[in-house]
Task: structure prediction
Amino acid sequence: MMPRLLILAVTFVFSSSMAIAQSYAVDPVHSSIGFKVKHLETSNFHGRFNKAQGEVKLESGAPVSVHMSVDVESIDTANKNRDAHLIGPDFFAAKDFPDITFKSTSVKKLDDTTFEVAGDLTLHGVTKPLTVKLVKTGSGQNMQKKEIVGFETSFSIKRSDHGMTGYIDKGIGDEVTLNISVECVKQ
Result:
């Protein structure tokens, strides 16, 4: 009888301490991906991407992996002619490189709400390592009573690092700052 109790106790301890990652899908309706870039060394120009998808896996409320994909053709600068130029060969070359992707390789907890996420950013067909600070902005339930969690990050990249050099010599900045806010729904 005693060996059975010991086996049950050990099994319970090990099974309860092994967290299972839960999958959360990025809700594109309640998420935003904005960017800004310097124009003619005078002002910051702002735009956004309207279509993104992704998944964040959580263990005990903390992210353990992040994957995002952004549809390049969803760029929105409030000017259709400019948007068409941006998805063309001078900038994103969306026909050849339709998506921008980020896939994490590691996540390090810095405190209860802040995480350092390292991964690979693929833009314009070029993959480069990227490390960002990800902040958990809250959690709760949506109107359909599904569990949700929010995250935000802001970081800068050089578009020339990804082979996007169009118009750098004509006053369009090389450094682009991205501001990303996502709401994720438990699957």
Summary: The longest strand covers residues 126-141. The mean pLDDT is 92.
